Amino acid sequence: MDYFIIAATTVAGLYFHWWLYVRIKRWSDRDLALSLAGSDPLKREYMLQRLDSAKTQKVKRRDLAAWLEREAAGYQAS
Question: How big is the CA angle at 51 (ends 20 and 75), to the nearest 5 degrees?
Fold first, then answer.
């Protein structure tokens, strides 16, 4: 029974740390996209769409900042 408790708490702890890591990664990516948009609400929406597009295109995390900067530079205000 002791081993079961140890195994269960270890698995729960590892899952929690993985979940927290994924959330922080998503928050930081979203924060990067919004920081490049500034205070313009239309550009903020555009940058969030570009972030979703980067995820579907599977842009690597190390290339994401440069990719988002290029997309922000290509933004055309309507």
Answer: 150
Q: What's the pLDDT tens digit per position in 34-48?
A: 999 999 999 999 999
- The amino acid present at 45, given as its one-letter code, is E
Give this prediction's pTM. Answer: 0.82
CA–CA dist 5, 35 (Å, integer): 44
Question: Structure tokens of 39?
Answer: 């205070």
Distance CA 47, CA 41 (A): 10
Contact in structure between 37 and 72 (CB atoms under 8 Å): yes
Between CA 8 and CA 11 the distance in angstroms is 5
Q: Tell me what pLDDT residue 78 has.
A: 57
